[in-house]
């Protein structure tokens, strides 16, 4: 066993800090005894390389025994588990097929309902378009009637204005002749 620190340097350090030489040596020897006792305790718990090899061989033989037992179990009990597993797989495939059939049925029903709703919506749009077209025609007719009335009133106003202007001109010419 070797100690991995310098005992003489520790004695010198203790002497520098105020201990006597005898006190420093006693402290260092106590520390060395404590460390040796601790090392003895640690070494008792450790195994040697030979012991480790023996333990490894024992573990390997146990593993080989377990492997043999597993092979025997696989041949006997695992075969029952495999057949049960196959039955469950078949049941799952049947259930999967039923679910897929139901999904297809629901999908088809939804598609049909969607197409019906689309046709209803198209019919409503067509009715709204017809109503809008009729309303546009009525509005166009009313606007045309109003334009016609406006034009006729405009012509009447122009006639009255022209008549008034000619009347005023005639009167003005009459006064002009009288004064001249």
From TrEMBL:
Keywords, alphabetical: Coiled coil, Membrane, Mitochondrion, Transmembrane, Transmembrane helix
GO biological process: calcium import into the mitochondrion; positive regulation of mitochondrial calcium ion concentration
Gene3D superfamilies: 1.20.5.340
Alphabetized InterPro entries for the sequence: CCDC90-like
Protein family per UniProt: Belongs to the CCDC90 family.
Domain of life: Eukaryota
Annotated protein name in UniProt: MCUR1 regulator
Locations listed in the record: Mitochondrion membrane
A single cellular component GO annotation: mitochondrial inner membrane
Membrane spanning residue stretches: 160-179
């Amino acid at each position: 066993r070797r100690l991995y620190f310098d005992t003489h340097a520790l004695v010198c350090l203790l002497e520098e800090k105020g201990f006597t030489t005898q006190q420093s040596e006693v402290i260092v020897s106590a520390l060395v005894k404590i460390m040796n006792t601790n090392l003895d305790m640690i070494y008792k718990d450790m195994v040697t390389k030979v012991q480790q090899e023996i333990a490894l061989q024992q573990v390997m033989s146990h593993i080989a025994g377990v492997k043999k037992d597993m092979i025997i179990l696989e041949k006997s009990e695992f075969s029952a588990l495999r057949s049960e597993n196959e039955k469950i797989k078949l049941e799952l495939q049947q259930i999967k097929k039923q679910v897929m059939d139901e999904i297809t049925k629901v999908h088809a029903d939804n598609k049909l309902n969607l197409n019906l709703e689309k046709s209803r919506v198209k019919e409503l749009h067509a009715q709204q378009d017809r109503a809008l077209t009729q309303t546009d025609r009525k509005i166009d007719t009313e606007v045309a009637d109003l334009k016609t009335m406006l034009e006729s009133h405009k012509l009447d106003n122009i006639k009255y204005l022209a008549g008034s202007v000619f009347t005023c001109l005639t009167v003005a010419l009459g006064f002009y002749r009288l004064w001249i």
